[in-house]
Design a protein that fits this description.
There is one protein chain. This protein is an all-alpha fold and 290 residues long. The protein has a domain at 1-151: Serine Threonine Protein Phosphatase 5, Tetratricopeptide repeat. The chain has 14 helices and 2 strands; from the N terminus they run αββααααααααααααα. A hairpin with a 5-residue loop joins strand 1 and strand 2. The two termini are 43 Å apart.
Length: 290
């Protein structure tokens, strides 16, 4: 397993063995599949007993109908190795449990990403976007974000929207990807989608729709969503002007280190009565994310 995890060639033959042992099947680097011990022994037993191919005797090598059949049978299990690569890559990226090594993180992410692991694709895109462990390359980042997004990765969809705005200024496609992630509850995507509606980029300008998405993000604790919702309340744009609500949202965003919100909070505080300030602060103290 270590050889495959690290990307080396490994040639082994699957033998039926005790369920407490790990068994490995290899046809070579291009068609390497893995059978590993699982936590639930009944899963292992069902796997080893299924189909005509497992050996019936521990001394007898396993037989397989075809390489295509093998690929189909082991697709999910082989993906488990890519999850391991991705997890080890994260440990190297963050320096948690392993030395921080962005180059090694990028290598492991790439091994998993090239096999279709969506989280690894998204994280490899992030490393390209930051130039960590790989040369900075926004176009390469965009391509990996796109691969992750097409597989349903919510962070990948959000990052793809961000880079479409940054690289190609394709706000219409960005809005579609932001909405895909926003509809699944991703707060940063909800804030980004709201901003497109507010500015009328890629979508028809709609301040009511912007307020809706800012509110959804704000209620989840997204600082930028909270700040922008506070600004709408402060200015009375598509919501009834309400300085108490504005102060509350600015207060919550400022607590998340949003310096713009802290400044805005100070500006509206001078326009409020002591009673209004007391109410707003009480609301902020009692607020909990949804």
């Amino acid at each position: 397993m270590l050889g495959e995890l690290l990307g080396g060639d490994l040639f082994l033959q699957l033998w039926r063995g005790a369920k407490d042992d790990a068994a490995v099947l290899s046809y070579g680097a291009d068609e390497l599949h893995w059978l590993t011990k699982v936590a639930d022994p009944t899963v292992y037993d069902r796997f080893m007993a299924s189909g005509p191919w497992p050996a019936r005797d521990p001394r007898e090598p396993a037989g397989l109908a075809s390489r295509i059949e093998t690929k189909e049978r082991y697709r999910e299990l082989a993906g488990g190795i890519d999850n391991v690569r991705h997890c080890v890559g994260l440990m190297h990226e963050k320096g948690r449990g392993l030395p921080q090594d962005h180059a090694e993180a990028a290598r492991l992410f790439r091994l998993a990403a090239e096999q279709g692991n969506a989280p690894a694709q998204n994280n490899l895109g992030f490393l390209y976007s930051e130039g960590r462990g790989v040369p900075h390359d926004d176009n390469e980042a965009l391509q990996w974000f796109r691969k992750a997004a097409h597989q349903g990765s919510i962070p990948g969809q959000t990052n793809l929207g961000l880079f479409l705005c940054k690289i190609s200024q394709d706000y219409a496609e960005a809005a579609r990807w932001y909405r895909a992630a926003a509809d699944q509850g991703n707060a940063p995507a909800q804030t980004k989608l709201a901003t497109l509606y507010y500015e009328g980029k890629g979508v028809a300008q709609d301040l009511a729709e912007a307020a809706k998405w800012y509110r959804r993000a704000a209620e989840q604790g997204d600082a930028l969503g909270q700040y922008n919702l506070g600004a709408l309340y402060a200015n009375g744009k598509r919501v009834t002007q309400d300085l108490v609500q504005a102060y509350m949202w600015f207060e919550l965003a400022a607590a998340r280190a949003d310096s713009s919100a802290a400044r805005a909070r100070g500006l509206i505080a001078v326009r409020m009565t002591p009673a209004e300030l007391e109410t707003a602060r009480a609301l902020a103290a009692a607020w909990r994310p949804m």
